[in-house]
Write a structure and sequence with these properties.
alpha+beta, Methane Monooxygenase Hydroxylase, Chain G, domain 1, Alpha-Beta Plaits, Double Stranded RNA Binding Domain, 3 domains, three-stranded antiparallel beta sheet, 10 helices, 44% helix, globular
Length: 334
């Protein structure tokens, strides 16, 4: 099977397995240090990265063994799964992400739609076995949510999720109207990679901090101290907030992580717009584009407006079965 052998060779080259082997050795060396588990959460995430790296190498090795033994069961499926990872060539495609959902115009309808998206993506994270933790959530006035932000931890999380950024449109019969009128609602998804401290310089003199009582979970102990953080970046006016953790320093770090991600994204968008201008192409706002329509009435259809991928199985999509739709977009933009 020379064609399969060549595909495996291409996968090994594109996934840069030698570099991943070095990463494994580095994490293993760190894990042997006495201070490794002092920050339990950070250590646990590094150990998950270690397991993911080892699993990736083992997947390739198993394919080679299957090819050598002439075993063809699931070979094509496993090849395609690994080949998808070769599309993740971006600087931060392997990174964890800051994932936010914001309700659009439309009051209660839009807030309810935002909560439906929240459930959909939570199911998707769970199916991927990606740990995620809440950074901040603002409930809706009557139903749903105004906004929610998570940190999502998973190998290639940004690579998978970055194309989900944009406006998501829902068409349905309103559950909040006695006449069951047809209603269109919008919500915005924002996806940012978690940037290493050394990759984006943030000057302390450019930061303005505010500390308030947390309104999140944690009980009376949280309310007694000012744990919630509001950070303003003076040069750009960008504001980030965090209040999910019990300790102020943890929320400070989360707010800084979000700021670095936003600053990096800002520079990326400037670079892309300049490339489009030089090529003579049209430019458009990064987050303002409608990417997908979810129609529940008068018929059932979810359609990605960039790839034209569509399905009538709206229940599966809203239950987090997003792989095929997301993979179609990943392959289309390469």
């Amino acid at each position: 099977m020379p064609e399969v052998s060549q595909r495996i060779t291409d996968i090994k080259k594109k996934l840069n397995l030698d570099q991943k082997t070095q990463e494994i050795a580095q994490i293993q060396a760190e894990s042997e240090q006495p201070t490794f588990w002092q920050d339990h959460q950070a250590a646990a995430l590094k150990m998950k990265t270690l397991a993911d790296l080892k699993a990736e190498i083992e997947e390739v090795e198993e394919l080679e063994i299957m090819l050598e033994l002439g075993e063809t069961n699931d070979l094509e499926k496993r090849l395609q799964k690994l080949e998808l990872k070769t599309f993740f060539a971006g600087t931060y495609d392997a990174a964890d992400v800051i994932f936010s959902i914001h309700s659009g115009q439309g009051g209660t309808e839009a807030m309810d739609w935002a909560s439906m998206l929240q459930r959909m993506y939570q199911r998707f994270f769970e199916k991927k076995s990606w740990p995620f933790d809440l950074v901040e959530e603002t409930p809706g006035d009557e139903a749903g949510i105004k906004s929610v932000t998570y940190r999502v931890h998973g190998r290639y999380a940004y690579g998978y999720l970055k194309h989900e950024a944009g406006t998501h449109r829902l068409v349905r019969q309103s559950p909040f109207n006695a006449d069951n009128l047809r209603q269109t609602s919008f919500a915005l998804v924002e996806v940012l990679p978690i940037i290493k401290d050394s990759d984006v310089e943030v000057k302390e003199s450019d930061l303005e901090w505010q500390f308030t009582h947390s309104s999140g979970h944690g009980g009376q102990n949280v309310q007694k101290v000012s744990t919630a953080v509001r950070l303003r970046h003076i040069p750009t006016g960008i504001i980030t907030t965090a209040q999910s953790e019990r300790y102020q320093e943890q929320n400070r770090q989360i707010a800084l992580d979000i700021l670095r991600a936003k600053l990096w994204t800002l520079e990326e968008e400037k670079r892309k717009l300049e490339q489009q201008r030089l090529k003579g192409g049209r430019t458009q706002a990064a987050w303002g584009t409608q990417i997908r329509s979810y129609v529940l009435h008068p018929y059932k259809m979810v359609k990605d407006l960039r790839t034209d991928y569509e399905t009538s199985n709206t229940e599966a999509i809203l239950d987090g079965e997003l792989d095929q739709m997301i993979e179609a977009e990943i392959k289309a933009v390469v």
